[in-house]
Amino acid sequence: MDKDFTLDLTDEAATLALGAHLATCMMPNLTIYLHGDLGAGKTTLVRGLLHGLGFVGKVKSPTYTIVEPYEIIRDGEPLFNLYHFDLYRFNDEEEWESAGFRDYFNAGSVCLIEWPEKAAHILPIPDIDIQLALNEPGRRVTITGHSAHAEKCLQKFNANLFKVTQ
């Protein structure tokens, strides 16, 4: 599939809004890689996405914990589990296996991975790549879908995209 599009975001609020808009197309069994330098807005995007999914708690960066799990619930019913990985400090493949992280990638979950290049040889192929880059004063975001599952998600995403960019 490999279809992509690029957006320019003016500030942090726009990054949060983009994340919230991404929430409208989230469905179980998605693996999403988040690329970008330190401070590019990866965790901010995830925060917006989680808030868009109805999560009301604090969203923290998993830099030191490697993964932060979230149960996504709508109308009192569990929808899926979302796992936010940050592999910036990851350097031990054995830790990955012993912690059971591989099991998080399943049909009932969405996995968002910051710094996927640190574990490319053990991660599943992404459905979606999101590249965030500084583009003063804001950010430039490129979203690329790689699978039929991603295509379904991104079609929903594109349907109302103008609401985010106005």
Description:
The protein is α/β, with parallel strands linked by helices and 166 residues long. The protein has a single domain, classed as 3-Layer(aba) Sandwich (Rossmann fold), CATH 3.40.50. Helix content is 28%, strand content 32%. The protein has five helices and seven strands, in the order βαβαββαβββαα. It has a seven-stranded mixed beta sheet. The chain is globular, with a radius of gyration of 15 Å.
Structural key phrases:
single chain, 166 residues, alpha/beta, Rossmann fold, seven-stranded mixed beta sheet, 7 strands, globular
In a few lines, what is going on in this structure?
The protein has 166 residues and is of the alpha/beta class.
Average pLDDT for all residues: 89
Largest sheet: 7 strands, mixed
What's the architecture, going by CATH? 3-Layer(aba) Sandwich
Distance between the termini: 28 Å
CATH class: Alpha Beta
The DSSP helix count reads 5
Portion in strands: 25-35%
CATH topology: Rossmann fold
The strand count comes to 7
Portion in helices: 25-40%
Going by CATH, what is the homologous superfamily?
P-loop containing nucleotide triphosphate hydrolases
Q: What does the overall shape look like? A: globular
Structural class by SSE content: alpha/beta
Return Rg in Å: 15 Å
* Number of self-contained structural domains: 1
Unreliable stretches (pLDDT < 50, length at least 5) are: none
Strand order of the largest sheet: 1-7-6-2-5-4-3
Q: Helix-strand pattern, N to C?
A: EHEHEEHEEEHH
